[in-house]
């Protein structure tokens, strides 16, 4: 296997161009048939590759979202540029025939540059497509649009810097110092804008991991409210007390967040404290009485009712039930009906509630 050609230095570029021109004209004069055959093969390969790209795009079809594999593949294939296809065809032919050395090196350099540009385009599209697929189900389109703008800028910077470094390396430029400088500069920028980047990545985490969405009611710390907007630095929440609470995304994710909108059912335990003078026979009928009160109620699943403890001041009766409705007002209405029904049941059984001293209330 032949060694890879040396990089084309910037200082020797004019001499290399002159050598390529002279050797190519000499090749055309001395071996025109082989030169024309090489051009013909290169054109045929270009047509073949271009046709394959066109056919693949047509086969995948239009109208498929990026979240589907067809839409994903079509988007990547469409970003394959004709310049890269032409450079690839020329490079394959130049490595298969006895072409002049300077011309072969020139074609190799052009192919490297085209591959660097095409690779940057592919990498950019793959990353952005994966991000869009992951965020395809989010309902906060405005916040997603802002986030995608920032992500696009960051991805563009990274992939094009890599492409430029690759091209410069093939031009013979010592990129070690450049890479080191970019690393030091990146660290300095990262430290200077640590807070901004921290909130930015927290916002992206909220948008893509979706612990909550716009419109959800959440509770964090001692604040409960509805999420109004998710920004790149802060999240705005309308508290139940009326005021708007603005909290940084980083600080918000550091807290324990309860998403109340995702409640599917609410299980409640209610405890009643009865007088110590309550007769045992009546207490034995309490579980059946509580079940009778709960079972007819809508959305209610009765779980248990027991006399659970005897303390120095009261006999504790505990009941547990589940309300298959996430609405808070439904839970409050149900608790009210249970409370009133159980109090009537106690009265019917001749049982009394106890006060703090264990006396009959």
Tell me about this structure.
- The strands form two sheets. A five-stranded antiparallel β-sheet has the order 4-3-2-1-5.
- The model has no long low-confidence stretch (mean pLDDT 78).
- Strand 1 and strand 2 form a beta hairpin.
- The chain is built from twelve helices and eight strands.
- The chain has 361 residues and is an alpha+beta fold.
- The protein has three domains: 180 residues, no CATH class; 54 residues, Roll (SH3 type barrels); 84 residues, Alpha-Beta Plaits.
Question: Mind sketching the topology for me?
Answer:
Elements: H1 13-30, H2 32-60, H3 69-78, H4 82-94, H5 101-134, H6 141-170, H7 176-192, H8 194-209, E1 217-220, E2 223-230, E3 234-239, E4 244-248, H9 249-254, E5 257-259, E6 266-274, H10 280-284, H11 286-294, E7 300-310, E8 315-323, H12 328-349
Antiparallel strand pairs: 1-2, 1-5, 2-3, 3-4, 6-8, 7-8
Number of strands: 8
Shape: elongated
Structural class: alpha+beta
**Alpha plus pi helix count:** 12
Whole-number count of domains = 3
Largest sheet: 5 strands, antiparallel
Low-confidence stretches: none
Average pLDDT number: 78
Quick summary:
The chain has helices at residues 13-30, 32-60, 69-78, 82-94, 101-134, 141-170, 176-192, 194-209, 249-254, 280-284, 286-294, 328-349; strands spanning 217-220, 223-230, 234-239, 244-248, 257-259, 266-274, 300-310, 315-323. By secondary structure, it is α+β, with helices and mostly antiparallel strands.
